[in-house]
Design brief:
Aminopeptidase i, Domain 2, single chain, 2 domains, metallopeptidase activity, 10 helices, 26% helix, 20 strands, alpha/beta, metalloprotease, nine-stranded mixed sheet, Aminopeptidase, three-stranded antiparallel sheet, 434 residues
C-alpha cells in the first residue's frame, strides 16, 4: 500500500501505477481508439482514460448473459490544482497560483513540504507524467502576528493558500515541470512522448508546455505509526485505500465461474464525477458494451446480465473521532480496527439497501473479516460516493462500503492496517461469489 501511494501523487499517476501492476500480472492493455479483439471479455484486460482505469478478469465459461462483479473506487483526492499562468512574485517571494480542488481541510496543507504532480502536454500533443521533489510550501502566519489564531483559524481561499517556491526572481513552475518530465522514471511516458524525446535530445523545455493537469502533493511518505504500529498514516487514503484493495483482489482472487470481475477506478469523484472519466460519465458503460459485444450479447442478454450483477462502491468513511464524539450517531459507533464498514443512508447518499447489506454480510463472513456499520448523525449530513451514480447509470445493484478513517480530506489521513487488509480480503470474496 505504501508503495502504491508513493507512486500515485495524482490521479494520472494512480492510473499508470494500476496499469503497471496489472501488466506485470498478465493483464492486457487496450487502446480505446483501436478495435478490440472479440475475445477480450474472456481474458484479462484493462483500459486507461486520463486519470481513470477500468480492468476486468473473466471467470470460466463466461457468456453473453454473464453478470459482472464491479469494485468501484476513485483515484482523486481533495487538494490544490495549478492555475494557468501560475508564476507571480509577492514582496520578493516567488509563488505559484493554485486553485482549490474539491473539499480539502485547508489548514492541514499548511507548513508541509509540497511538490507538483500530474501530467503536462507539449505542443506536439505528447503527454508526460511529471512529479517534482519538494519545491513548495503554504506558510502559516506566525502566532506573533495573529494572536487569535488558536481561537479559530480562518483562511481566505485565494490570499492565504498560494505556495511559496523561492526568493529568487524568475523561478518558473513550467521549468520545474519540464525538468521533472525529462527526469521521469522509465515507462512513464506515452508512446508519443517517448518518440518525441528520442527525436529531440533537448527533451521538454518550459516553452513546449501548452497544457497542464497538475496538483500539489505532500511529499512525506506513508508510514505505520501508533503504539503497536497498528495505524497507517498517509496522504490520499480517500480513496487510494479502496483502489488498492480492488487491485489486489482482482489480481489474486479467481472470479466465480460464469462471472466477470471488474475494477472501476474513476477520476473526479471529489468534484461530483461529471466528467468523461468520472462515474457519471460513459466510461464504464462503454467498456461493458464493448466486452459484451465480443460475447455476442443482445439487448435482452445485457438486461439479464445487469439484473444479476453487483457493484461494491468502496470509498473511505468516518471512524468515531474521540475528540468530537458528538458529531457521530449516538448508537452506531464504527471504530478503526474493527473492520471495513457498510455505509447506509436513508436519503440514498449511499446506495446500500437490504439486499446489499445481506451481500456484504455474506462476503465478509466468507472472507473471515469483521465488519461494522456507518450511518450519519441526523444533524451532520454525509457526503456521497460513486455508488448512487453507478446504480443510476447502469441499473446495477450497488452497496456502499469502505474503511474507517480519521482526518478525512486532510493532507494526511489515518487508517488501521487491519481494516485495509480486511477490505482487500472482502473484495476478493466478492469476486469469488457466484
Amino acid at each position: 500500500m505504501a508503495g502504491f501511494v508513493a507512486a500515485s501523487p495524482s490521479s494520472y499517476h494512480a492510473a499508470h501505477a494500476l496499469a503497471d501492476a496489472l501488466t506485470r500480472a498478465g493483464f492486457i492493455g487496450h487502446d480505446e481508439a483501436s478495435a478490440w479483439d472479440p475475445a477480450a471479455a474472456e481474458s484479462r484486460g484493462f483500459v486507461v482514460r486520463d486519470g481513470a482505469l477500468i480492468a476486468w478478469r473473466a471467470g470460466q465459461d463466461v457468456s453473453a448473459t454473464s453478470p459482472v462483479r464491479i469494485l468501484g473506487a476513485h483515484t482523486d483526492s481533495p487538494g490544490f490544482v495549478l492555475k494557468p499562468q501560475p508564476d507571480f512574485v509577492s514582496d520578493g517571494w516567488a509563488q505559484a497560483g493554485v486553485e482549490i480542488y474539491g473539499g480539502p481541510l485547508l489548514n492541514s496543507w499548511l507548513d508541509r513540504d509540497l511538490g507538483f504532480a500530474g501530467r503536462v502536454v507539449t505542443r506536439d500533443g505528447a503527454e508526460h507524467l511529471v512529479h517534482t521533489h519538494a519545491v513548495a510550501r503554504i506558510p502559516q502566519l506566525a502566532i506573533h502576528l495573529d494572536r487569535d489564531a488558536n481561537k479559530g483559524l480562518t483562511l481566505d481561499r485565494q490570499r492565504h493558500t498560494q505556495p511559496v517556491l523561492a526568493t529568487t526572481a524568475g523561478v518558473s513552475v513550467y521549468s520545474l515541470l519540464a525538468d521533472a518530465a525529462n527526469h521521469a522514471p522509465a515507462g512513464t511516458f506515452t508512446e508519443t512522448a517517448s518518440a518525441r524525446l528520442a527525436a529531440d535530445p533537448r527533451g521538454v523545455v518550459a516553452e513546449d508546455i501548452v497544457g497542464t493537469d497538475v496538483r500539489l502533493y505532500d511529499t512525506q511518505g506513508a508510514a505505520r505509526i501508533g503504539a503497536a504500529g497498528e495505524f497507517f498514516a498517509s496522504a490520499r487514503l480517500d480513496n487510494l485505500s479502496s483502489t488498492f484493495a480492488g487491485l489486489v483482489a482482482l489480481i489474486e482472487a479467481e472470479p466465480a465461474p460464469g462471472t466477470i470481475s471488474m475494477l472501476a477506478a474513476f477520476d473526479h469523484e471529489e468534484l461530483g464525477s461529471d466528467t468523461r472519466s468520472g462515474a457519471s460519465g460513459p466510461f464504464l458503460a462503454e467498456v461493458l458494451d464493448r466486452l459484451r459485444a465480443g460475447l455476442g450479447a443482445t439487448v435482452e442478454d445485457t438486461a439479464r446480465a445487469n439484473s444479476a450483477s453487483w457493484c461494491l462502491s468502496a470509498d473511505a468513511g468516518h471512524s468515531v473521532h474521540p475528540n468530537y464524539p458528538e458529531k457521530h450517531d449516538p448508537h452506531v459507533r464504527p471504530l478503526a480496527g474493527r473492520g471495513p464498514m457498510l455505509k447506509v443512508n436513508a436519503n440514498q447518499r449511499y446506495a446500500t439497501d437490504a439486499h446489499g447489506a445481506a451481500l456484504w454480510a455474506g462476503v465478509c463472513a466468507t472472507a473471515g473479516v469483521a465488519t461494522q456499520e456507518f450511518v450519519s448523525n441526523n444533524t451532520v449530513p454525509c457526503g456521497s460516493t460513486i455508488g448512487p451514480l453507478t446504480a443510476t447509470r447502469l441499473g446495477i445493484r450497488t452497496v456502499d462500503v469502505g474503511v474507517p478513517l480519521l482526518s478525512m480530506h486532510s493532507a494526511r489521513e489515518l487508517a488501521h492496517v487491519d481494516d485495509l487488509h480486511g477490505l482487500a480480503r472482502a473484495v476478493g470474496a466478492f469476486y469469488e461469489r457466484a
